[in-house]
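Cross-posting from the modeling subforum.

Setting up a comparison between two proteins and wanted a second pair of eyes on the formatting. Protein 1 (sequence, then structure tokens):
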Amino acid sequence: MKIIKSLLLIGSVTLMLTSCGGGAEILSTPIENIDSIPLKEADLTENEKHTWGHLDLVKDTIPGMSVDKAYTEVLKGKSGQTIIVAVIDSGIDIDHEDLDGVIWTNKKEIAGNNKDDDNNGYVDDIHGWNFLGDAYNEQLEKTRLLAAGKGGAEAQADYDSDFQKYSGYKTQYEQIYQSLIAADEAISKHLNNKNYTPKDVNSIETTDEELTRHIAIIKQIYGFGFDNTADAKNDLGDALESINDMLNYNLNKEFNGRTTGDNPDDLNDKPGYGNGNVKPVKKSESHGTHVAGIIAAERNNGKGANGVANNVKIMSLRAVPNGDEYDKDIALAIRYAVDNGAKIINGSFGKYFSPHSDWVRDAIAYAGENDVLFINAAGNEGIDLDSKAVYPNDQVANGPEVSNTFVTVGALEPKYGSGMVAGFSNYGKINVDVFAPGAKVYSTTPENEYDTKGGTSMAAPAVAGVAALIRSYYPKLSAAQVKQILMDSGLPVATKVVVGGNSSDVRPFEGLSKSGKMVNAYNALIMAQQLSN
């Protein structure tokens, strides 16, 4: 990882921070003399790739959240309370080896008796609720609106743009995929070795024009960062699957994936629809499992990943399909989480059209009124949310907020300096609160596997994990106080950064969010301790 030393000047070793009506002086991660520290020029090690979000800026020269430092220096010898964190997402593999010990169980419900034992409106909701039933694929919201004749010019223009773009992607990726397969077969045959290496390819000497073209294709694949063709074929195959899903389901006006039998435009229709099976319906439905692992994968058990927080139980609320979520499902999932004991909700989802956004905002307000923190992913289009609304949100047109416990999170890359903001990350001085590790994050995936994913979807659960630590070890603090701590205790960054992945758009990092900071668990826990005294 290359880091430009001149971009590492941040400010004072101590921060004067004010929150919750009182002042608190806390020791920050010491960064005023970071220029004198030998900086790493090499790429991240495998261990650093898997743990970078937990590392420390000074010690590791990586913009993590100082989670490991927090456990070692702040939480050592302390015990905390169990905190329920609701994950509104796709299904979660609750049997995963790194999650099975941190899954919430509704002790008031008797499994498998087909009764609503706790009278909460949901039958056999043992580990949460599945608002999608057996559904997996869904339309985008703009597709649903246009199919119903309600979309308007903006939705139509957006739809047409996407349809043209993904139709082009399909042709392009299919050509690349077929070229790769042909080149791989040709090189394997020439070398008589299916497991050839870049060194083997570079050693080929030939005057055969066709083989030369195949060699050029394989070398281009290596240039994209792959060191073998199997990984490249897998990635291209996954990309093609996503493109086909977009065209066959997400943008298909004739498709209807709803299986629950309710009217999604009537908030009160068929209460308790769905079922208690919160698991993914297929292995590739991995998003929710990945998010849950970032928050609470069992720590230090010798298995694949460590979550940010201990003392957590994950409540699984399956409400996000392979497409856009329904406002009804999200509104009811938020209320379910609040009514069943969650103190934090993680929402790693979002869309740009929302016909019933008021239902969701009312639910967000309900969470705030009941001392529940909602951690929200900013979105992945590299745009300014102060100029374009994304849903869910807690305000209309940058107006008054309906809740003071709603936190929107942008994503960081594992490299400090001008490239530290993920190119895909949305931002906004009004509508984004903080930034946190979100690119290239390693976590749990279904069937006891692990993978690296990127998105503000990964940044939000990192912050949810820090919030869970605060609420666990300092339970007297309100959700509103925890939000303010997350914002006030973060590390300020004085450097300018590339915004939206556009190298010609360079701005001060502090202008990309309300706090101008990146979340730091070490600082947050020190501030929480001081405010709890």
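Protein 2 (same layout):
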Amino acid sequence: MEGPGDPGAPAARWKRHIVRQLRQRDRTQKALFLELVPAYNRLLEKAELLARFSEKLQPEPNDVTPSVHQGPWEKESDQGLSPAALRGKWQEEAEGLRLVCGEMAYQVVEKSETLGTLESQLEERQSRLAALKARVEQLEEVRAKKAGQVHARRALNEEQRAAYEALRARVGHQEAALRRLEEEARDLLERLVQRKARAAAERNLRNERRERAKQARVSQELKKAAKRTVSISESPDTLGDGIREEAETQVLAAQPGYLESEAGEKWKRPFRSASATSLTMSRCVDVVKGLLDFKKRRGHSIGGAPEQRYQSIPVCVTARLPTQAQDVLDAHLSEVSAVSFGPNSSLLATGGADRLILLWNVVGGHLKANQTLEGAGGSITSVDFDPSGSQLLAATYNKAAQLWKVGEAQSKETLSGHTDKVTAAKFKLTRHQAVTGSRDRTVKEWDLCRAYCSRTINVLSYCNDVVCGDHIIISGHNDQKIRFWDSRGPRCTQVIPVQGRVTSLSLSHDQLHLLSCSRDDTLKVIDLRVSNIRQVFRADGFKCGSDWTKAVFSPDRSYALAGSWDGALYIWDVDTGKLESSLRGAHSAAVNAVAWCYSGSHVVSVDQARKVVLWR
């Protein structure tokens, strides 16, 4: 061994390094030929074996017997060759076999390289397979965690479902209790209203008795005063007392407490002088004022200023039945739900869910756009002209009704105070007054001069439509009832039940008949003189398309008109109750509302598909 201080140590190290590299190369190249060398050795062994076979098969020199059997390495042309020639030939064949062995060795090298490539691919795939197995294991772990979470969620869902069922049962019990409480509240409200009505009636009766007692006292005073006599010489100023006495007697005769017998006895008494009474003129004036005040308190407005009323609208003598559609327009941007004619029959208003009110002129059987009224805060549910035709009132879904002056594009007034959708708004026959109905279960009267709610009527059900008479308000409700309200009284005067939710009301011009449309697909004519249903109109195919389907009387009250869910218009004869005609073809959707002009010559219908149709 050479020490570290030996000068020949560096040379020995690089020599050893070269030797290691040569050995490494030998091992590498030997690995390539490990399979080739045994194969080559086997080929050499086979070649030697063939050589020995060939030596054994060589014929003897004296043997001339032809060989019948040819070995596997013999050919027919080799039979006559000498052993030397055969040896050369076999040597050539041996060389050929060596060449074949070389080629096979080269193929073995190529196959070895291919095998190495395949082994590297196999190793790569095995590594990938190991990675995938690791990934699978991770996914299996994640799956097991997710399965545990699913199991926990299912358990939680079962708990929540049980809690939900318990809450649902509690809600059901609470809803039942709420319904009972609502029924009790309605009963209490009705009882309260009845008690208030009885108390008001008793108070009115007491007041009337008090006034009658006061009147009787005044009559007694007048009788006592009439019995007193005074000499004619007392005063020249009493010459006119006889005339006053006669006037007083006439006033007493008009009183219910004054008896005819007493009057007769008065005239049977001897003639008295002109100064037969001692009542002064001021006393008589006080008595007459008291009587007038009493009558006024009882509702007789003596000498008072009468309420301002609109001029009456001309009455149509005979309405003409429409037969065909004259004009069809896609007027609005969405569903059209309201239509109304002005009193001159040439101005028309339509309103819909696009929050616009369009004014139209009827000219020559066609509709021509006049004006667009803007400013509505929600979908339009009802439009109505006042009897003078100068103002337009519309109900909206914005919990208010709005007032326009015809000719002005912007709204003039907003009647706010409802807490839910306003479904109907109508003018009263007296000036500057209107009525609205809402889904907040109230009906309100309005003073249009001040945009002030003068009265609120609380009802137990949604109000779908209202109409107004001289001193009466009629409302149709969702609880299948029509209610009548006196404008001068505090409470409902009458209730008429109908089958189905009331969708619209129409009052005849003479205010003697009411037309109602309801969701039981019928129209009913109510005679207001006897408060009884006079006619019920039905037809095959007629159905109300919505809760706001409007039906109307013709101006002469001879016909009833309504639109159906299939776009057809049905017209009934009010007197006979028979279906007069049905109009089809112009509408393809449910008809929401119809209007018959006051002259009786035109009908307009609107539907849920934005169409406005003029019929003539």
